[in-house]
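Backbone shape codes
____________________
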Amino acid sequence: MIRSRLSPARRGLIVAALGSSLTVSWASSYYIPAVLAAPMAADFELSEVWVFGAFSMAMVISSVAGPWAGARIDSQGGRGVLMLSNIVFAAGLGLLAVAPTPPVLFAGWAVIGLGMGIGLYEAGFATLTGIYGNDARGPITGITLIAGFASTVGWPLSGLMLATWGWREACFGWALLQLSVALPLNACLPVGSKRGDTSPRPVEPGPPPSRLAAYLLAFVFAATWFNSTAMATHLPGLLQIAGASPAASIAAGALIGPAQVAARVLEFGLLRRFHPLVSARVAAAAHPVAAAALVFFGGPAAHAFALLHGAGNGILTIAKGTLPLALFGTVGYGRRIGWLNAPARALQAVAPLIFGAAMATWGLSAIWLTAGIGVASFFALLVLRRA
């Protein structure tokens, strides 16, 4: 580890640089379909379902690429992998911008999926662990604080470029930002650790990580990503089914971002005194409690639902980086976090479809599906023991 050679100012710059580059990467991949899917589909005379299907394909590809990226970061450090991700993102966005036919559009999304597998949070967490070792919890929280504003920045900027130039030019604009902003920021990162042995084993003293613990953690990550993606896609419609007006639904949805950031500030301050399992259990319970409030109180509880769900989701995003570190140690961290999050990425691809079908069939009662998943996550975290 190189932490001892870094001044406090340098450590702050590392977090700021990585958090800012991840903001660009999230904004130009995960968050562009919400704004650009409709004009993309219209240009090719397709249903929007086809564009979201291409995005789902990208999520599956990202789940396959993640373990390779993590193992590479374990052995060579994260700077090179993150810089490669910026080039891959730019290539995928460029393909979208020039796509003459739907197959090329799908190819562009496939390339973006590869970029997502090697250049989003998991890669950032592994990079920080290579730099800071067991002290990476604070920096991990720091980059999620910054990148938590990706939708706040990304959606308006995508909308502005769409209105000013068009969706193809918007994709070119994001590709340019990948190369001119994110790539130089990642180039400023230290190389991090270089280890020849990347086999997963714990930091001594302590028992080897059990298969049960790994399976439980993978389940928790998959369950929480499913709920997060389902809510991100269907929240306004769900709140209107509960009785909130369209304006109130949009206003409530706007609270999720600030709630996530506020919860991460809490994690950075008060909750960092506790083991990550403690904050993760509290966060996992937040969505089921919010769901019960929405069912029993209806539309008037829309804002409370958004705040509770957003706060829980904000802390659980950090837990995806800090829990594997706390439970299993630093050795083999990148490869392990890639495998632990692979099922989550795959479930993200189908979450909008599954929850949308549940809403169409059950109405507001569909929220019990995500509430039940949240309860199962909470009990899985109770079974896990402090390393």
Notes: The chain has two domains: 3-187, 211-383. The two ends are 21 Å apart (CA to CA). The CA atoms of residues 219 and 377 lie 7 Å apart.
